[in-house]
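Record now logged underneath.
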Amino acid sequence: MPTRSEAGEGTVGERARGRQPGLLAGLLVAAMVAGGCMVGGVSSQGEPAQPRPQQPRQPASPGAQTTRADGTTSVAEFKQDFNDALGGAQSYWTAQFRKSGKRFQPVRRVVPYTRAGEVSCGGQGLPRNNAVYCSAGDFIAYDVNWSVAAFRQVGDAFLFYLLGHEYAHGVQVRLGIRYTYTIQQELQADCMAGAYLGDSVRDGSLRLEDGDLEEFREGLLAVGDDPDQPWFAEGSHGSAEQRTDSFFRGYEKSLGACGLN
């Protein structure tokens, strides 16, 4: 289970040391969040595109038959790991922007939901079995049942990847990053999530236990596009292999490998 360092509770990003200074310098930090909707990293102009659910191999609802034997079972554990992952991402990006002489505006809010259409992004209801960043309201929304099921089936490390990925989309908006193809946006967010986690492990803000790296891999394999998904299609996230490669490139080489400089 990824855990926050006891020596620095609440200061994950503030104790960041040894990273490349000023990596974000020169990039445009958006003063206001643009309209539109970034669903799983799919940003659209004007009317938002139809959200495309993630495709993890999870049961319809959490069950004992899919619970891993690593103790990651309770809702209380889910909430703690979720908050740790979210707080770590916010602290990490606050520190990165500060090193570049910029002030970071955290993602405004995080919204749980349980029913399709319960939460809207740009006037369009979000589907079940998904986690998204919505630029229209600058928030992250997630299907609670799907997230808890993935937490129990894949493991707690999946939450740190999931929150790192969605938070990276918020950072892309703040930096004014927008690619022609959504797959480019998605793979960069995977790389940025990997950098957040790898840097946090290296600076001692986060500790990994045995099996956590494998949980990252298993989660990435679960959310890859179907083999017949065209890479250039709106909403493409990348194959399981592409997503795994992008994540671990960031994990091993930090933000310099993510095309931010």
Summary: The longest helix spans residues 75-99. DSSP finds six helices and nine strands in the chain. Strands lie at 3-4, 38-39, 42-43, 109-113, 120-121, 124-125, 131-134, 139-143, 206-207.
